[in-house]
């Protein structure tokens, strides 16, 4: 196959688009280090020889490491490569979760029923991967018993110790005490089962 040689001095004609690889005749290096389409190392050769190998397989010659000396090129299906790259980016974007900050507000006079409802809501937020800002608001005479009222928020934090860890500890600002909780890894049912099995084995060994 006759391959037309390029003008190596006319580099503007083969300059790659921003953010993409140079492929085929866009590659202006005289010599390249070639990697085959199955990942095998084929060594250093002229661009013409490398391009011929790619063409003979109906594939592309792609410059994957332009700053190496000589540049490293690989034989591949570049259209397929770009398709797979976009598909993975789309999948990663779909699976990425944005952490939200949820707020739970309480008053010193909160009754037990409301307390448990707010506790249940906070637990649900944390189990979904969201952070929780817990706030205890006080006003008037309630401020005179601030040190006692803060026990409410301390109890709240303690009741969530299995699913949360403190990101920002108790902070007082005028008539409000607050803390920020973030999710932590919890022991799954399978882990509980495995731990139980391991404990049972240890007990049997001790008996023997």
Structure notes:
The chain has 5 helices and 8 strands; from the N terminus they run ββαββαβαβαββα. The chain is an alpha/beta fold and 208 residues long. The chain folds into 2 domains: 11-78, Translation initiation factor 3 (IF-3), N-terminal domain (Ubiquitin-like (UB roll), Roll); 101-183, 2-Layer Sandwich (Translation Initiation Factor IF3). A hairpin with a 2-residue loop joins strand 7 (164-173) and strand 8 (176-183). The chain is rod-shaped, with a radius of gyration of 32 Å. The termini are far apart. Mean pLDDT is 80; it is low at 1-15 and 186-208.
Mean pLDDT: 80
- CATH superfamily (homologous) name of the largest domain: Translation initiation factor 3 (IF-3), C-terminal domain
- Strand arrangement within the widest β-sheet reads 2-1-4-3
User: What is the class of the largest domain in the CATH system?
Assistant: Alpha Beta
**Poorly predicted ranges:** 1-15, 186-208
């Amino acid at each position: 196959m006759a391959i037309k040689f390029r003008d190596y001095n006319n580099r503007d004609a083969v300059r790659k688009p921003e953010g993409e690889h140079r492929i085929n005749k866009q590659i202006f290096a005289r010599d390249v280090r070639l990697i085959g389409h199955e990942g095998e190392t084929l060594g250093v050769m002229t661009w013409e020889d490398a391009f011929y190998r790619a063409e003979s397989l109906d594939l592309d010659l792609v410059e994957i490491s332009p700053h190496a000396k000589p540049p490293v090129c690989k034989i591949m299906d570049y259209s397929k490569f770009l398709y797979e790259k976009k598909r993975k980016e789309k999948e990663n974007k779909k699976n990425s979760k944005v952490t939200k900050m949820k707020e739970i507000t309480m008053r010193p006079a909160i009754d037990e029923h409301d307390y448990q409802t707010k506790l249940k809501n906070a637990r649900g937020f944390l189990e979904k991967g969201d952070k929780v800002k817990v706030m205890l608001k006080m006003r008037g005479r309630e401020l005179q018993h601030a040190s006692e009222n803060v026990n409410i928020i301390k109890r709240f934090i303690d009741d969530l110790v299995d699913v949360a860890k403190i990101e920002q500890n108790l902070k007082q600002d005028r008539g409000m005490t607050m803390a920020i909780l973030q999710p932590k890894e919890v022991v799954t049912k399978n882990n509980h089962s495995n731990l139980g099995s391991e404990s049972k084995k240890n007990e049997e060994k001790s008996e023997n």
